[in-house]
Hints:
Number of domains: 2
CATH superfamily of the largest domain: P-loop containing nucleotide triphosphate hydrolases
Bound molecules: adenosine-5'-diphosphate, magnesium ion
Largest sheet: 9 strands, mixed
Number of helices: 10
Structural class: alpha/beta
Radius of gyration: 23 Å
CATH topology of the largest domain: Rossmann fold
Order of helices and strands: HHEEEHEHHEHEHHEHEEEEH
Amino acid sequence: MRSKYPIHTTLSAEAIKVLERYEKELGAKNVVLEKALLSMDRSHFKSKLDTHGMDNTIKRVCTGVPGLDESLEGGIPKGFAVIVTGPPGTGKTTFCMQFLMEGVRNNEKCIFFSFEEPMEQLVQYFMQFGWDVGKYIDDGYMDIFGMSMLTSEEIIEIIDAYKPDRVVFDSLNVFTAPDEFRTSGGWRALLRLLKSKKVTTLFITEKRHGIETKQFDEYDFLGDGIVFLDSIQTNEIDTTPTPVMAVQKMRATRIDRMHQPFRFTTTGIAKYRISNLPDRVLQERLARRAVEHKST
Length: 296
Ligand SMILES: Nc1ncnc2c1ncn2[C@@H]1O[C@H](COP(=O)(O)OP(=O)(O)O)[C@@H](O)[C@H]1O
Ligand SMILES: [Mg+2]
C-alpha cells in the first residue's frame, strides 16, 4: 500500500528520501531543509508532475489575421514563442502588430520591442490600417519600445513589471549570430520567463532567401512555431508579386504547411480563403523559382 506524505507532495521522490533520512536522524520535522530541497528540486531532480490537476485543454490565442486562426485550430497555443520570418518587406512587422492589436482589443497587455525603427515611424505606419496604437498606449494596454537599446536583463525587468499577455521582438537579427543567440544565458533566461508567465511571443527574424529554399537557421529551432512570409510572382503577365504566408511549424497543432496568398487591406493583412487560391499556379511558380535559385 502507498503511504501518503501530504506535506511533501510537491517534492520529488528523490528529495523525499533525503528529507526522510534527515528527519529520522533529527527525530523532528525540518521545514528549512524541506524548503531548501524544494528549490533544489527544480534544478536537480525530476519535478513531480500532477497529471490529475493538469489542464489538458490548450488555450489558443487569436492572431487577428483573418483566415489564419482557422488553419491553426483557433490560434497560436497560449505561451508559445513563434518565429515570424522572411525576406525584407514581406509584412513581418505588420503581421506582428496586427497580432498585438487583436490582443489590446481583448483587453490584453501588449509590448512591441523594435530594435530598428523609432516608435513615431511605427505608430504612423500602423495608422494606415486604422490602428490607433497611440490610444492603447495612453490606456496602458500597449507599450512600444522604438529603436530599443535594451539588454536582455532590462527586457526581463520590463516583462516582470508590466506582465504582458503578448510580446513582439522586431527583429532578433540585430543582436548576435543566431547560434550565439540560442545559447546566450541572457536570452535563455528571457525565454524561460516568457514561458513561465505564459506570454505568447512573436520573434521576427530576417531571411536572405525566399520560401522555396529549405534552409533553417538557429532561430527557427528555438521557436514553437514558424510563420514564413514572402512575396512571389504568380502571374506571367502581371508581374506584381503576391504576398504569401506559410505556417512551417506549430507545435501541438495540425497544419498544412502550404503557402497561402494574403493581401494588405485597409484594416491590416488577410489571408485569401483557401477556395480562392490560385494554388496550382502558386506551387508551379515556387517550384520554378527553386530551380532558378539552384542554377544561380
Ligand atoms: N497598404 C498596402 N498595400 C500593399 N502593400 C503594402 C501596404 N502596406 C504595406 N505594404 C507592403 O508591406 C511591406 C512592409 O511591411 P513590413 O511589415 O514593414 O515588412 P517587413 O517587416 O517584413 O519588412 C512593404 O514592402 C509594402 O510593400
Ligand atoms: Mg519589419
